[in-house]
Amino acid sequence: MTLRIASCHCGAVTLRFPLEDFTSVRRCDCSFCRRRGAIAASVPIEKLEVSGAEHLALYEWGTKTAKHYFCKTCGIYTHHRRRSNPSEYGINVGNIYGINPRDLGEIPWSDGANHPSDRQT
Known about the structure:
Blueprint: E1 3-7, E2 14-18, E3 27-28, H1 33-36, E4 40-44, E5 49-51, E6 56-59, E7 67-71, E8 77-81, E9 88-92, E10 109-110
Parallel strand pairs: 3-10
Antiparallel strand pairs: 1-2, 2-5, 4-9, 6-7, 7-8, 8-9
C-alpha cells in the first residue's frame, strides 16, 4: 500500500495514511460540502496518523456524526469523519502531496443533500 502525506497550507497539520489508488474519491452535494467544494478520498479511521492535531478546529452540525477538521492557522479543510460511514475519514485530496485533483478526471458525486439520516421518520 502506498503511504500518502497531506498537509494544510501552512504545514501546521500533517496527515499520513495508506491510499493505493483514487477509486474512493467523490464529491458531495450536502449543504456543507457543496460550499467547500473539495474532493475527498476515503481512509479507515485507524489508518490515519495526524501530526499537529493541536492546530485543528472542529466543525459539527445537525446529527453531529460528521466531524469536519480545519487548520486554525490557515483555515484549510484537512479531513472529516464521514457521516455515511463513520468508520472512515474523508481526506481532502487537494492537500495530498504530488496529486493534482485536476488530473483525476471526472469525480462521482454523493447525494448528501438527500442523506438517509436527514429524513424524518
